[in-house]
Structure formats: C-alpha cells, structure tokens
C-alpha cells in the first residue's frame, strides 16, 4: 500500500499508522485503531455506542444533572404532568421522574457491569476447559451447562430471585446464573476448532502445560466472540433485570430502578402515561443500543480473521 | 540420531493402522526425506516422533535414548518442528516477538531482547519486525518466523512437515536455501516430509518412499537422481514427477483411467 | 485462426475504491487453444478469470477498453445475460472439488441438475440421466452408474475433479476456465486429469484458460503462456519457447525450481526489481 504517504502524517494518527511499530504498546494500539476505523463504517453501531456512552456519562454525572432527590417524596405534588419544573412529571409519591430515570441509569449500569464481570470468566473457563480436555471433563461440564440451558432464562432467574429474596445483588446473581451457559457453549465450540490448529501444536511442542495453553493461547482467541456475545446478550439482561424489578424481585422499592418504576406506573397508565412511558423508553433505548453495538462489533471482529 | 523401529500408529474409529511397521534411521547431521502422496502416513510418522501423538507402538530413539510416548519437557529442547501452513502455525493475535519468546518461557529459560534479535537475524529477517502481527507479514516471512521459533531452543533435530508446499516457487527456493544453510551452520539433523520429489531430492541424502503406511523403498538421493529405483510404486512416482517437472521432453503420455 | 473467443484489452480491476490495483492494463485474446496464465500469489491471475466470469465482489471496479466473449460485451451485459454465459457457455473449474460439490447431494443428481438448469426443455429427467452417464463416461470414469449414486465424500480427489469436469462439460460450453485445477491433487493423479482435459479440449474444439502458479504444468500443457507479475503481464510466449524467456522474472521463476535430476548446492533466488511493476510487456 501507499506506505510513504502514511509515513508523512504526524501526531497521534501518524503514530497509529506508522508501518514499523516501535513497541508492543504501539503495535496493540495500531490494531485497536484499525478495528476502530473499521467500526466507523457501521453508522448504526456508532449510534449504539453513542447511547451506551451517554448512559455511562449520565450515570456518573447523575447528581449534576438533577435538582431533585430521586427518593424524596412530595405528596402535595403527586402525578404532576411534565413541565419545566419536572421535565418528565412526577410519580404517585410526587418524586421527580427525570431524576429517577437518571439515577436509574446507575442501577442499570451496575447490573450490566456485574453480570458481565461474573459471566465472562465463568463461561470462558468452563467452555475452554471442556473443549480442550475433552473426554469426561467435557461430559461433566457440558451436562451441567445443559441443565442450566434447559430452563427458560427468565423462569430460572425468577426462581433464584424468589429463593434468594429481592434485592439488586440477588437479581444480579440470578441473571448471571442464567447467562453463563451460552457463553460456555460458545467458548467450547471455538476451543474445539482451535485445539487442532498448528499454532497450538507448536506451543505443545515447546513443552507448555495444558493450563498455560488454555490461559495464554486459547482464551485470548475466544475473547472477541465472547465480548460480542455478551454485548448482544446485554439487551436480554437489561430486560430480565427490568422484568425482575417489575415483578418486585429486583431492586427494593424506594431505590430507582427502571423495571420497578414501570411496574408502579402501570396503575396510572391512562391518566398519567409519563410515569410508565419514561422508564419504558429508557429500557427499550438501552437494549436497542447494545444490540446495534454488538451487531457492528461482531462484523468488525469477524472481518479480522479473514485478513 | 533418529532411530525409528517398527512404528505402528492407529487412528480413527474403528482404529485403522495408518502407519504399519515403519523403520528407518537418520545419522547425526543427516537429512532424511519421507516422500509419498496424500494419506500415505508420512505426516503421521512425523507427529508420532514429535510427541504430538503419544498413541503409537514401536520404538522411537533420539540421541541414543528410547523415548517414552509422553515426552518430558526437556525433550522439546532437542527436537522441534516446522509446520506446513505458515498462516496457521503462528498465533494470530500475538506479536512476532512475543511468539519467539514463548518457547523460552515454556522451557523456563531466560528471556531477552537479544534472543529475539538473534533469532530473527539468523533467519534473515529484520529485527524491526518483532512488533508486527502475523497477518502483516508475507507467507515467506511467516515461515521464516516459524523456523526461528523452532530454532530458538537450539534443538539438534528439526522435523519439517511440507515446509514449502504452501509457498510460491520463488519463496520456496529462498526457504530451502535457508534451511540448508542452517543445517550446515548448526549441524542440525533434518527429517523432511513432502509430496514433492524434487524438493526431497534437493534437500535430502536419503529418501524413504511411503505408500499406504509403509516405506516401500529406501534409497540414497543419488539413485533417485539417476532414476534407478526398484519398487514399482516409487518408479511410478518418479516418472510422474519427472514428466510433470518438465525434465524430459516427451509430451504427456499417461492416458488416465479411473 | 478464426475470430477470438475472448478478447480483453487494457483490463483493469481495482479494489477498495481503486486504491489497490489487482490487475493493470492486461490485454490478451483467446482462440480455440490452451492458454496458460501463470503467476505467483497476488499476481492477479485469478482475478482475470473471475473478471471474465463476472464473479468479482461488487466492491471491485472493472474497467477495460474491451472485454468481450464472442458477441457479448462482458462489461455491459446484464446479469440475466450473464446467467446464460456462466456455466452454459463458459465453464469454470476450481481448485478443490471438495468445496465445489454439494456434500448432501448424490454426484449424479448434481450433474443432472446443471443440465436441467441449462436445458430445461431437453426431455426432462430421463434424458438428463442418460446425458449424465454419457458425461461420466467421457471423463473416463469406469463405472458411471455406480459413481453417479455416490456422495462427494465417498469419492477421491481425482475422481471429484473428473466429476467437476463432467458437470461443466454437460452444458457444452465453448470456453473453459480452469483455476488451479490440479493443485489439490497428488502428482500421479494430476497427469491423468490434465491429459483428460487436454483430450476434451482438442476433441470438442474449445478454448481453455488454465490459471496456475505452476510453470511446469503450464509449460507442458498449454499452447501459449501469459506470465503475470503484480497485476501486469510481463511476458507472453509460446509454451515451447518458455526456456528462451527474456524477462528476468520468468527466467528467475524457472531457475528457482528444484530439480530431481541435477543437484545444485544453492537454488538461485529471484531478485525482484521494482521497475518490473511498470515495465512494458516484451513480446517474442
């Protein structure tokens, strides 16, 4: 390609496009930058990413964006229609709906991050071990996975949440228990095809132990597809979390959570639609964003293998 | 250096003998070629020797010691392998430098910048390439990296599984030259597997012709060049390769039937 | 020689919005002969074949002064016209029969399907069956009735390539494009498939484009040879005169092949000269 032209560029962009990387950091940064450039070719993915970034910013800056306490009640002003004072109106206890949505972003983000942090390592580890070792290890791990897969996710989450008692942490544990099996399956399938690859054989011929092969060579290859899968699953995680909240098994009442907000707003749906519409739209928007982002991410990370 | 006696390998289910009582030996510093067509079991022999497939019967002796089917870690310091497909034998998400350090890490040897420099220069690559990823290199460069990775542990034996059949002819010549230079310089012992009789004739002192899991004929490379083979199959293979190789001037004569 | 079957003048193929030029000002004609296109990976040889078949991805930009197949202008022909050209009038054979055959369909059925697709009014299934057996016979398969009932995984590589040839021949094309037809086959089988192709081309009076990386194969098999480097034709020669090639690239390629008969301690390697990329073709 036109390497001379690229070399003439300066600054960070020049550093990122330099044909001869001078260090490992630069080499990795260049790969990320290339993927980012490719990602920019997916406008819908960018929209999804923008919404997710917005969610994070809103969650971090919640106190700056709101002038009301999300749990302070004001019975004199209950079910007020949207106005300049209350942008999205107030609910049945006179709480500002906008503030509750903004603070609810924190709850949603908390659930999403914890689920991802719990599910990805469990799924990856179980899947890669099953795939690499095969035999009875595979049998046992996969049968356990099948048991979890055989129940509909929401029902299983409901059962766990009911058994553990309501609360955000318990909801997260319940959701994670239903979310890891598909990840494990995916990681196993990838491992099965990688296990026979020559570059794994080469590492075996260096005398590497099975654990080091799994952790250092196979796992990194499974990470991209697992990230994609988890991102695409986030929509259903958010919906399950909202569903648990809606049924009273998620966040405990005064704390703001979108699902619970929608649930309590349902009584006043006809005369005060904003109480249910606002959290409903927020849930739909964030789930959509994760779907769009995940779709684009999948295309970008897939294309990399075919280079 | 390498002594293989009555090697039998069964693969598949139900298990079928893919390699049937194969015996041969390679002297220290020698270069032995196994030639045959696809499915004749030549690569299976290599995998059994390398330790990738511990499920074999018979004896494999390297450097005067009979090996156990499951190899100890130190074994890999003396025997290394280069694979056919340079696209598949390098980890796609690790830089070249990191991949070259991996054997040292696995053998708990000291890892240094100099080792990577040395390894890359010894196969004729610019050390600046150490921060590249495999997909940023050409096929020939990748195969050079694979050779460097095999040699960084300073083995005495190099197993070569069709090392050039995925490469262009001009690149093939470069890699074959490199392999010959390295053998001379380091006193390496080669066991080369290929379907290409011309490559084998160029690289090896002795040749074993394999068919259906057996070595049907073993000859010095000179006899291969002189065309004095005895077994009907090895003669057929030689004839086909010569005709094909354009060294005789007759037109195509083999009128094939299925 | 009569009017050429295929004529290309100044063919250019670009990818990525024209940034990468895979093929640059390539001109050649094909009569009723065996024309070889040789080059290393990345030389653009396969792209030429695909451009003729119009099988390039939509991102490719194809420009030419002329790209014709007999009366059809391949640059402007509609996709419907191309359906009649592709398979029916120009046949394509690819490298590995394993990937070109449908794994869950019997071999005979697949050939029959091709026939019915191109000749829907030719007497239905019974006629198709008869033609299939005739074709399998033509590609020298000994027991056509039995082979027709087999699935692709039950036949060997050489047999698979014969089946592919039969499948292509049944449409009675005027031109065949064979892209590395024997690279996936063992050397003893290669010769059989090649001599079969040779016989069919001569007997049916077809034009053949053989795309290959293998100089020896092309030299033994073709009438004329085009040598491509970096998207350009560096030399066009009669196959018998390949030994007297002038271009350093061609000479380098020939020299770098190891030989069974004479031992050299070091194979000559190719020094690539950047000027070749822009050099003009040397005809001899």
UniProtKB/TrEMBL annotation, chain A:
What residue stretches are annotated with the ABC transmembrane type-1 domain? 105-294
Q: How does it sit in the membrane?
A: Multi-pass membrane protein
List residues traversing the bilayer. Answer: 44-65, 109-133, 154-179, 231-252, 272-294
The record's subcellular location field reads: Cell membrane
Q: Where is this protein primarily located?
A: membrane
Instruction: Give Gene Ontology CC terms.
Output: plasma membrane
Keyword Cell membrane (UniProt):
yes
Which keywords does UniProt give here?
Cell membrane, Membrane, Peptide transport, Protein transport, Transmembrane, Transmembrane helix, Transport
One Pfam annotation reads OppC_N
* Source organism superkingdom: Bacteria
> Any keyword Cell membrane?
yes
GO BP terms, alphabetized: peptide transport; protein transport; transmembrane transport
Protein family: Belongs to the binding-protein-dependent transport system permease family. OppBC subfamily.
Alphabetized NCBIfam families for the sequence: Opp2C
- The name on file for this protein is ABC transporter permease
* Organism name: Mesorhizobium zhangyense
TrEMBL record, chain B:
GO CC field: plasma membrane
What EC number(s) are associated with this protein in UniProt?
7.4.2.10
The UniProt entry, under Gene3D superfamilies, shows:
P-loop containing nucleotide triphosphate hydrolases (3.40.50.300)
The source's superkingdom equals: Bacteria
Location of this chain's protein in the cell: Cell inner membrane; Membrane
| Topology in the lipid bilayer | Peripheral membrane protein
| Main subcellular location | membrane
Q: Which CDD domains match?
A: ABC_NikE_OppD_transporters
Query: Which positions fall inside the ABC transporter domain?
Result: 2-237
What does the entry give for GO biological process?
A: transmembrane transport
Task: Give the reactions, separated by semicolons, that this protein catalyses.
Answer: glutathione(out) + ATP + H2O = glutathione(in) + ADP + phosphate + H(+)
Task: List the InterPro entries hit by this protein, alphabetically.
Answer: AAA+_ATPase (IPR003593), ABC_transp_ATP-bind (IPR050319), ABC_transporter-like_ATP-bd (IPR003439), ABC_transporter-like_CS (IPR017871), P-loop_NTPase (IPR027417)
Q: Which GO terms describe its molecular function?
A: ATP binding; ATP hydrolysis activity
Record key words, sorted: ATP-binding, Cell inner membrane, Cell membrane, Membrane, Nucleotide-binding, Translocase, Transport
Pfam families hit by this protein: ABC_tran
- Subunit structure as annotated in this protein's UniProt entry: The complex is composed of two ATP-binding proteins (GsiA), two transmembrane proteins (GsiC and GsiD) and a solute-binding protein (GsiB).
Family, similarity comment:
Belongs to the ABC transporter superfamily. Glutathione importer (TC 3.A.1.5.11) family.
**Role description:** Part of the ABC transporter complex GsiABCD involved in glutathione import. Responsible for energy coupling to the transport system.
Q: What is this protein called?
A: Glutathione import ATP-binding protein GsiA
Q: Which organism is it from?
A: Mesorhizobium zhangyense
Automatic annotation (TrEMBL), chain C:
Domain ABC transporter per the UniProt entry, residue ranges: 6-255
What InterPro entries does this protein's entry cite? AAA+_ATPase (IPR003593), ABC_Ni/Peptide_Import (IPR050388), ABC_transporter-like_ATP-bd (IPR003439), P-loop_NTPase (IPR027417)
Q: Name one GO molecular function term.
A: ATP hydrolysis activity
GO annotations of cellular component type: plasma membrane
Entry's Pfam families?
ABC_tran
Q: Which UniProt keywords apply?
A: ATP-binding, Cell membrane, Membrane, Nucleotide-binding, Transport
Q: Does the keyword Membrane apply?
A: yes
Q: Topologically, how does it sit relative to the membrane?
A: Peripheral membrane protein
Domain of life of the native organism: Bacteria
SUPFAM superfamilies linked: P-loop containing nucleoside triphosphate hydrolases
Statement: the UniProt record of this protein carries the keyword Membrane: yes
What the entry lists under CDD domains is as follows: ABC_NikE_OppD_transporters (cd03257)
Q: Where in or outside the cell is it found?
A: Cell inner membrane
Main localisation: membrane
Stored PANTHER family = DIPEPTIDE TRANSPORT ATP-BINDING PROTEIN DPPD, OLIGOPEPTIDE TRANSPORT ATP-BINDING PROTEIN APPD
Say which family it is in. Answer: Belongs to the ABC transporter superfamily.
What is the protein's given name? Answer: ABC transporter ATP-binding protein
């Amino acid at each position: 390609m036109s390497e001379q032209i690229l070399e003439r560029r300066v600054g960070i962009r020049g550093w990122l496009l330099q044909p001869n990387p001078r260090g490992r950091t630069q080499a990795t940064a260049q790969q990320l930058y290339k993927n980012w450039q490719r990602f920019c070719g997916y406008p819908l993915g960018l929209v999804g990413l923008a919404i997710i970034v917005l969610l994070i910013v809103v969650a971090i800056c919640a106190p700056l964006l709101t002038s009301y306490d999300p749990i302070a009640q004001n019975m004199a002003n209950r079910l007020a229609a949207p106005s300049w004072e209350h942008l999205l109106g107030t609910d049945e206890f006179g709480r500002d709906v906008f503030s509750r949505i903004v603070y609810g972003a924190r709850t949603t983000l908390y659930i999403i991050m914890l689920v991802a942090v719990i599910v990805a390592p469990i799924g990856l580890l179980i899947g890669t071990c099953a795939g690499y070792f095969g035999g009875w290890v595979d049998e046992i791990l996969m049968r356990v996975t099948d048991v979890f897969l055989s129940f509909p996710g929401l029902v299983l989450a409901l059962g766990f949440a009911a058994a553990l008692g309501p609360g955000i942490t318990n909801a997260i544990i319940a959701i994670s228990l239903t979310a890891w099996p598909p990840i494990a399956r995916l990681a196993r399938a990838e491992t099965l095809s990688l296990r026979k690859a020559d570059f794994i054989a080469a590492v075996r011929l260096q005398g590497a132990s099975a654990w080091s092969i799994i952790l250092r060579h196979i796992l990194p290859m499974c990470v991209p597809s697992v990230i994609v899968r988890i991102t695409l699953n986030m929509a259903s995680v958010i919906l399950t979390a909202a569903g648990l909240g809606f049924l009273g098994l998620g966040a405990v009442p005064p704390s703001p959570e979108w699902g619970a907000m929608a649930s309590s707003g349902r009584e006043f749906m006809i005369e005060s639609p904003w109480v249910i519409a606002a959290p409903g739209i927020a849930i739909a928007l964030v789930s959509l964003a994760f779907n769009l982002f995940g779709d684009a991410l999948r295309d970008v990370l897939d294309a990399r293998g075919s280079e | 250096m390498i002594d293989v006696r009555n090697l039998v390998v069964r693969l598949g289910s139900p298990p079928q003998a893919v390699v049937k009582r194969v015996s041969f030996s390679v002297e220290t510093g020698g270069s032995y070629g196994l030639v045959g067509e696809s499915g004749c079991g030549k690569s299976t022999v290599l995998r059994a020797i390398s330790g990738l497939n511990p499920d074999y019967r018979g004896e494999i002796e390297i450097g005067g010691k009979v090996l156990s089917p499951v190899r100890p870690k130190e074994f890999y310091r003396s025997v290394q392998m280069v694979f056919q497909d340079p696209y598949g034998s390098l980890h796609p998400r690790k830089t070249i430098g990191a991949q070259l350090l991996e054997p040292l890490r696995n053998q708990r040897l000291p890892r240094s910048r100099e080792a990577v420099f040395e390894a890359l220069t010894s196969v004729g690559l610019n050390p600046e390439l150490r921060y590249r990823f495999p997909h940023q290199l050409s096929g020939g460069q990748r195969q050079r990296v694979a050779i460097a990775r095999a040699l960084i542990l300073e083995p005495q034996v190099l197993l070569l599984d069709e090392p050039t059949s995925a490469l262009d002819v001009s690149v093939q010549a470069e890699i074959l030259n490199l392999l010959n230079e390295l053998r001379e310089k380091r006193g390496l012992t080669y066991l080369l597997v290929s379907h290409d009789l011309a490559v084998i004739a160029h690289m090896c002192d002795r040749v074993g012709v394999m068919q259906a899991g057996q070595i049907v004929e073993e000859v010095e490379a000179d006899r291969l060049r002189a065309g004095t083979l005895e077994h009907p199959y090895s003669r057929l293979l030689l004839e086909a390769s010569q005709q094909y190789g354009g060294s005789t001037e007759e037109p195509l004569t083999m009128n094939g039937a299925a | 020689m009569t009017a050429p079957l295929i004529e290309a003048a100044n063919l250019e193929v670009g990818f990525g919005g024209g940034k990468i030029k895979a093929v640059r000002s390539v001109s050649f004609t094909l009569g009723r002969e065996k024309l070889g296109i040789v080059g290393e990976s990345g030389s653009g040889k396969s792209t030429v074949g695909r451009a003729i078949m119009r099988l390039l991805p939509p991102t490719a930009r194809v420009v030419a002064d002329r790209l014709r197949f007999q009366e059809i202008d391949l640059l402007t022909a509609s996709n419907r016209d191309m359906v009649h050209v592709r398979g029916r009038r120009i046949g394509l054979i690819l490298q590995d029969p394993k990937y070109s055959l449908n794994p869950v369909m019997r071999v005979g059925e697949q050939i029959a399907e091709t026939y019915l697709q191109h000749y829907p009014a030719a007497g239905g299934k019974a006629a198709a069956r008869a033609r299939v057996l005739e074709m399998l016979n033509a590609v020298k398969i000994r027991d056509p009735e039995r082979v027709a009932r087999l699935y692709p995984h039950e036949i060997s590589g050489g047999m698979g390539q014969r089946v592919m040839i039969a499948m292509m021949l049944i449409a009675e094309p005027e031109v065949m494009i064979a892209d590395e037809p024997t690279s996936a086959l063992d050397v003893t089988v290669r010769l059989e498939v090649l001599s079969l192709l040779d016989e069919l081309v001569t007997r049916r009076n077809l034009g053949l484009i053989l795309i290959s990386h293998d100089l020896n194969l092309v030299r033994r098999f073709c009438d004329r040879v085009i040598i491509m480097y970096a998207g350009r034709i560096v030399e066009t020669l009669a196959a018998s005169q390949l030994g007297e090639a002038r271009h350093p690239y061609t000479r380098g390629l020939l020299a770098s092949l190891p030989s069974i008969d004479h031992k050299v301690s070091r194979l000559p390697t190719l020094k690539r000269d950047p000027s070749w990329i822009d050099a003009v073709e040397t005809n001899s």
